[in-house]
Automatic annotation (TrEMBL):
UniProt keyword annotations, A-Z: DNA damage, DNA repair, DNA-binding, Glycosidase, Hydrolase, Lyase, Metal-binding, Multifunctional enzyme, Zinc, Zinc-finger
Domain Formamidopyrimidine-DNA glycosylase catalytic: start-end pairs: 2-114
Protein's recorded name: Formamidopyrimidine-DNA glycosylase
Any GO molecular function: class I DNA-(apurinic or apyrimidinic site) endonuclease activity
């Protein structure tokens, strides 16, 4: 599932590609992907201009010139493509938005994901439960520690809880824990000051590195996009079961924790009792 680095990477690219562009038409191949009748959705978007693209957590919000928003959540398996034509037949995409100039934005893999047209107020209401952004300047080390102290769950489930921090999921929670040398099944509220500071620094370090490398998902946005998916080869533990740890050579271990995949090094990440 796309997380902060993937969605921020999409936002950066789409902001440059779509800012100030007019929507000339929409095609909806799956009615369940949107939140209103297809003809209403299509007619409401035709002629609208995208002012800018915002990200909140794992959501992208396309701000329209009529004050409404297109709210996108890719969920598991969702991805985007942009260009003169899609990398697959048009029927493989749930929604296609066409723009002046002839290019289109293709929304693929949205069997669980969605693209909803909403008022600004409704969009704010939908996201009111989200926690702070990882790079919010108000999320100081002290504020981070206070949030951790109020959690009763394991470290991985805390990091992936969107009410704790917005934008972190399965992949980067494991990568952050590895970088901080903390077991993902450690109790979140039992970290000492040194451990919580390591975790705080690792959140910023890993997410920055992943964003700059284009995230771990392998669907390039445009035909000339050479960056998207670049972090996949840099993952230290995620999806690396039985591979040697890059730090000590111990085979990476795989378990599940409250239904989530969990990858870690049993030697570098000890102590979760």
């Amino acid at each position: 599932m796309p997380e902060y680095p993937e969605m921020e990477h999409y936002r950066t690219q789409l902001s440059a590609l779509l800012g100030g562009r007019k929507i000339t038409g929409a095609v909806v191949n799956r009615a369940a992907t949107i939140n209103e009748p297809i003809d209403v959705f299509n007619s409401a978007l035709e002629g609208r201009t995208i002012l800018f693209v915002e990200r909140r957590g794992k959501y992208l919000l396309f701000h329209l010139d009529d004050g409404n928003r297109l709210v996108l959540h890719l969920m598991l398996g969702g991805w985007l493509a942009y260009g003169d034509e899609g990398p697959k037949p048009d029927s493989h995409f749930q929604v296609i938005l066409s723009f002046d100039g002839g290019q289109s934005l293709y929304f693929g893999g949205l069997r669980l994901g969605y693209l909803h047209r909403m008022t600004a107020k409704a969009a704010l209401e939908k996201m009111k439960e989200l926690g702070p952004e990882p790079f919010d300047p108000r999320l100081t080390l002290e504020a981070f520690r206070k949030r951790l102290a109020g959690r009763k769950g394991k470290l991985k489930t805390t990091l992936t809880d969107q009410k704790f921090l917005a934008g972190i999921g399965n992949c980067y929670s494991d990568e952050i824990c590895f970088d901080a040398k903390l077991h993902p099944a450690a109790a979140a509220n039992r970290l000492d000051d040194e451990e919580s500071e390591r975790l705080y620094r690792s959140v910023h370090k890993v997410l920055t590195e992943a964003k700059e490398a284009g995230g771990y998902m392998g669907h390039p946005l445009t035909a000339g996009d050479q960056l998207t998916g670049g972090f996949n080869e840099r993952c230290r533990v995620y999806d690396r079961v039985d591979e040697p740890c890059v730090e000590c050579g111990t085979p990476i271990k795989f378990e599940t924790l409250t239904g989530r995949k969990m990858f870690y090094c049993p030697h570098c990440q000890k102590g979760h009792e």
